[in-house]
Amino acid sequence: MQINRLFELIYFLLEHSCVTAKELANYLEVSVRTIYRDIDILSAAGIPIYMTRGRGGGISLLPNFILNKTVLTKSEKIEILSALHAVQAVDIHHSQTIMKRLSALFGEFQTDWLEVDFSSWKNDKEESIKFQTLKTAILSKRIIRFLYHNSTGEQSNRMVEPLKLCFKGQSWYLYAFCLQKCDYRFFKLRRIKQLNVSDQKVQHAAPKHVFTNNINVNQTTVTITLKLAKEMAYRVYDEFDDYEILDDGSFLITCTMHCGDWLYYYIATFGEYCEVLHPQEIRREIKKKLQKMIQFY
Predict the structure, then answer these.
(1) Peptide bond into 279 cis (omega under 30)
(2) pLDDT, tens digit, for every residue of 146-178?
(3) Distance set, CA 78 to CA 12, 70, 186, 188, 242 (Å)
(4) Residues 5-13: contacts with CB within 8 Å, 24+ apart?
(5) How far is Cα 145 from Cα 191, in angstroms, rounded to an integer?
(6) Is the pTM of this model over 0.70?
């Protein structure tokens, strides 16, 4: 379409101070005559595009015209470009094009102070494909089917309406309306297998802030006191806000956590470097689990 070509022509001129009609024709895959006709159209529309003859001449835009017409401050432009740098972590190909165009519109600012990579260290290609498939299903509003493994080890076939991809706590989640449960659910991407996109259309909509709207205020919590050895210092700094450093270099931590089996699994990740000091029922339950584990050895 002509309107798309005209925008492409402007973007190209924003990125290059001066180009020849032949260069533009090659870039846009049209004739030189068409380029001259497009320039006349843009000029008539008030775009300050001009041509110079002779050696070093060509087609140009008046310097800073587009920049002066924007209503954003310099700091706002930098924030937008920096945010797009982060967006490249989830869709690098499309965001690079956007970055290129907006950089031309806004001017060259220092925006490479931030780098985000949501992928795991093992560079899981399967997870990347799954992410893109889910993104396509969400944008096209298509129901999906998959095999899901939950936190208790059970697996089930699910048919859901995908609504949002969410990142929290070092993991990606799919927020969807589960047609089996007739309710909204989170699904951890790594536990989704055999993913297929159907032709059926999504009927439900996602709330604006899914994490805030799904906090279970009625979930039981427990206040525990942990003693972590100095070897766990890196995890203390990563995972706890309040702690006391004891004379031997170990850490004393009191925190409130949600109850459930996951709590024992979490404590177990500290291995021999953790002791639960309080409450006593948590200590007794951990002892039972350890005795069961010893039976395997």
Answers:
(1) yes
(2) 999 987 778 899 999 999 888 876 788 899 999
(3) 21, 13, 34, 34, 35
(4) 5/30, 5/38, 6/38, 6/41, 6/42, 9/35, 9/38, 9/42, 10/42, 10/47, 10/61, 11/101, 11/104, 13/49, 13/59, 13/60, 13/61
(5) 13
(6) no
